[in-house]
Here is the input.
Amino acid sequence: MYAIIENGGKQYKVSEGDIVKVEKIRAEKGEEVSFRAVLVADGETVKMGEEVASVKVTGTVQSQDKAKKIVVFKYKSKKNERKKQGHRQPYTAVKIEKIVL
Here is the structure.
């Protein structure tokens, strides 16, 4: 069984026991969080829309961290204009505990 959850304008495919890196959530380590399910599939049936309004996907926060650094380098040729920046996107690692239909 798996579910598609929504968080931070993105969708993630999760199953029970998965650890997912989602957009940063205001929650402490060990705290329980729940997500809105968009789709639920179990072997032979697929439910979505009104059918998944009551589905609850819960998980516990494993860590609050930052992703690997990316380098943003902008320049204009022949103008000696350069700008180098780095960025580390914050994320929350969540372990999916259960999908309740």
Remarks:
- Residues 45 and 52 are 12 Å apart (CA to CA).
- The radius of gyration is 19 Å.
